[in-house]
Design goal:
Elements (H helix, E strand, L loop, with lengths): L1 E7 L3 E9 L5 E10 L5 H11 L6 E6 L10 E2 L2 H9 L8 H14 L5 E5 L9 H4 L20 H14 L8 E7 L3 E7 L2 E5 L22 H9 L3 H10 L2 H6 L5 H5 L4 H25 L4 E5 H6 L1 H7 L12 H6 L5 E2 L8 E4 L4 H13 L1 H7 L1
Parallel strand pairs: 1-4, 4-6, 7-10, 10-12
Antiparallel strand pairs: 1-2, 2-3, 5-6, 7-8, 8-9, 11-12
Length: 374
């Protein structure tokens, strides 16, 4: 069956068309990417529809936050749309954007099965000790305040790529995956089951990111609210949009650009960014009790060798050591970059979230059902 995938972010979208064959074998037929704060879903999807010889047989949408309700991909209907909207306060940069793309796709292809695939679903089975905050139930899990985890599609895609590279390890063994892009997260998994991840109640927690602060003491929010005389919502908005590399450096949000800047603040921003990664890697080595591999993905993870080197610097004691030449040469693709003597394998993979979306939609829509509706 032919599946269209819509991977929408807060200010970008990736569109891809796949032919899904037997045993979910994929063949990418077309792909395009658009970025900008003024993207018009109706216009872009309308232009795509005009080029297609026939409507897709299923459509898959990436949705960042599914809460505790959506732990698997689901067919989209009015109830699902309402639930995604209710979850928007937990992912204000992403869920509203996803709804705009879903609405536009439904207007164009109302008779085509459309599927929502949730970033949080990959982490639905987190152990309780990793999923819950140390607060009373009546201000925690009873109100949905817990650690959800995000970037699930990316971490699943990295795990699948690792399994293809290392079929000798049962379901991938003990693995640390790093999704480093505009948003950044790290996950520890055992045989494909996430044991911990850096993002929590929202995509703001965890690593230093392009414009997001990552880990911050909760007491900072009321303190800044009082000192800056702004509502708490604006404090959170600033931590999302004026934190991270951009906030610390005051100039840029891309570590590759900051590495070319000799100013002390730019250098410090990258140092803090890499330090936080290394700190989490150390913690997840303890969670896993040992480690078979570390995988880098995302725009930064795939293309900025200096970040990979700095993030894993000083970890030779744990069997983690990069080959400088292999690391410097790695720019995307599925390649190993660890030193020959290293006990822990390290690789760079192209994170194919769209393939995860396509397979989920094909499985849920069903080949026979999809053909009947075409």
């Amino acid at each position: 069956m032919t599946v269209l995938t819509l991977n929408s972010g807060s200010t970008s979208v990736k569109l891809a068309l796949y032919d899904v064959g037997e045993h979910q074998a994929l063949r990418r037929l077309d792909a395009e990417q658009h970025a900008g704060s003024g993207l018009d879903p109706r216009q872009l999807l309308g232009a795509l529809a005009a080029r297609l010889p026939a409507p897709p047989q299923a459509i898959a949408h990436r949705v960042v936050h599914g809460g505790t309700r959506f732990t698997q991909p689901v067919r989209i209907d009015a109830t699902v749309l309402a639930a995604i909207e209710e979850l928007a306060p937990l992912a204000p940069l992403h869920n509203p954007a996803a709804l705009r793309w879903i609405t536009a796709a439904l207007e164009l292809w109302g008779d085509v099965p459309q599927v929502a695939v949730f970033d949080t679903a990959w982490f639905a089975g987190l152990p309780r000790r990793a999923a819950e905050y140390a607060v009373a139930a009546d201000m925690g899990v009873d109100l949905g305040v817990r650690r959800y985890g995000f970037h699930g599609l990316a971490h699943e895609a990295m795990w699948r790529a690792w399994c293809r590279l290392h079929p000798e390890l049962e379901s991938g063994g003990r693995l640390i995956t790093l999704q480093l892009g505009g948003g950044c997260s790290i996950t520890a998994s055992y045989r494909g089951r996430p044991l911990d991840t850096s993002m929590g109640f929202s995509p703001l927690e965890g690593l230093v990111m392009a414009t997001r602060s990552g880990d911050v003491d909760a007491a900072v929010v009321p303190y800044l609210q009082q000192r800056l005389q702004i509502p708490a919502e604006q404090v959170i908005a600033r931590l999302n949009s004026r934190g991270g590399l951009a906030g610390v450096s005051g100039t840029a949000e891309n570590p590759a650009e900051l590495l070319r800047d000799a100013s002390p603040q730019a250098r410090f921003a990258v140092e803090l960014y890499c330090y936080r990664i290394r700190k989490y890697v150390g913690a997840y080595l303890a969670v896993l009790e040992s480690c078979d591999g570390i995988v880098f993905g995302g725009g930064v993870g795939e293309h900025v060798a200096e970040v990979r080197a700095a993030a894993l610097e000083g970890l030779r004691w744990a069997g983690i050591e990069l080959d400088p030449a292999l690391n410097a040469a790695a720019r995307g693709g599925d390649v190993h970059i660890h030193a020959a003597r290293a006990a822990v394998k390290v690789c760079v993979v192209s994170t194919d979230e769209e393939a995860v979306l396509a397979r989920a939609a094909a499985a849920l829509a069903g080949g026979a059902a999809g053909k009947a509706r075409a």
